[in-house]
Design a protein that fits this description.
It is built from 12 helices and no strands. It is mainly alpha-helical and 195 residues long. α9 packs across α10.
Length: 195
Amino acid sequence: MDPFLTLLHSVSSSLSDSELSSLKFLCRGKIGKRKLESVGSGGELFLILLEQQLIASDKLYFLEGLLKSIKREDLLSQLKQFVEEGEVNASDDQPDVHEKRLQEAAIEVICENVGRDWKMLIRKLGISEVKMDRIVAANPFNLREQLAQSLREWQKWKGKDAKVTDLIKALRSCHMNLVADRVEQEILPLNTGTR
């Protein structure tokens, strides 16, 4: 897999809706209005930038400028790491495809069932207050998105060590047993017979 595309995918999945809107605005001089209106994700925006040769694995100046403009220091450091190592995340640090699917399904169930107490769960998973505050600031009126972004942050941080069972343990330790039961009943059965 192309390390640069992996980097762009990682950056794209970290962007909030408001950050994507800011990026689209910043690209106005480079990309036509009609094309920009059809962009619904960071990935789509990056594809256009790749096609127009504004970004490439050896041409990161424009992307760096965009990330500086939206004040995403975390993504800038990921970009710097890519430049230094020639790769963003070694693929052996990522969970296998099956585990990743289970995590995504578990995150969906958690987002549907955990309400205002979501921060307690995210603290149990070890995500810092600073990261949570940044996620809340990026999605000020969308509780579900705050939780989803926080869980994705946990996924990225843990890499291949991120397990659905860890989510269930954290839910139980926060006395969110009904949600933990739902994850166990709906997600864990998908795990049997596939290994």
